Amino acid sequence: FALFAPPPPLLAGLDPTHPIAVLGLGGGTCARSLAALYPHDTRPMVGWELDPSIVHLAREHFGMKELELSGRLLVRCGDAFEGIRRAGAGGGRCAGIIVDVFDEKSRVLPLLTRVETWRDIASALAPGGRVIANLSTGRGKGADLDLAVAAAEAAAVACGGGEACLWRSGANGIWNEVILTGPPPLLWAERVPSQLRHLTGDWHHVTAPPGVEKGWLMKGR
After folding, report:
1. Pairing mode, if any, of strands 94-99 and 73-77?
2. Distance in angstroms (rounded) separating the CA atoms of residues 11 and 29
3. Integer CA distances (angstroms), 115 to 81, 109, 112, 177, 206, in order
């Protein structure tokens, strides 16, 4: 979850009323991390979680209720993708959007391999905003690198103008690919809390060829 924490300094020049959206709120770990690392940041967060029982558990045992009462977090129960699509269609704008959803085997959802899905996400993004997404391959025999690659390509094209930065790591049989859309951040290491600086140097800049949406990311790698 620490990998989702660097974006707030990258959004400092954007309207402070534009929230950071979390698609796949779960128990609220990501939102709690952002609140703890940036205690003086007043930018609100809005999170979507499909399962109301998880929200109830997080409110009772994991401090989500306190975040809500403080005004830092607005929780919505329901389909995150439909929610962000409606927000964009209604003129809502987010400074940053965190995407952390996957199937029961920790694989990327097929929905995320479609450029149209990411265009819906981009429709809710403020100019200059960023999307950061966890694109896991899944584990063991069910792992699917192709899904993660296809999702990364679609996110870069639809949300980053064809540009993105990638971070990859493997542990316990799962490869995680985290993507940050847009051009490489300037002076990133100087702008994040000290405990996150070690994470800013392991990102790789990728650019899609003009007019190409699919099949470009792994060429020459």
Report:
1. unpaired
2. 20
3. 13, 13, 8, 18, 17
Structure confidence by residue, pLDDT tens digits, 64-118? 999 999 999 999 999 999 999 999 999 999 999 999 998 888 889 999 999 999 9
What is the C-alpha end-to-end distance of the chain, expressed in Å? 27
* Contact partners, residue 52, CB within 8 Å, separation at least 6: 77
Secondary structure class of 182 (helix, strand, coil):
coil
CA distances from 219 to 113, 149, 206 (A): 18, 11, 11
pLDDT tens per residue, range 154-197 = 999 999 999 999 987 655 455 678 999 999 988 788 888 888 88
H helices of the chain, in order, are 7-10, 29-37, 52-61, 64-70, 80-89, 115-122, 145-159
Q: Please, are residues 44 and 72 in contact by the beta-carbon 8 Å criterion? A: yes
CB 77 within 8 A of CB 47: no
Residue with tokens 């993105």: 164
64 neighbors 58 (Cβ within 8 angstroms): yes
> What are 59's two structure tokens?
């409110």
Instruction: Give residue 28's region: left, alpha or beta (phi > 0; psi -120 to 50).
Output: left
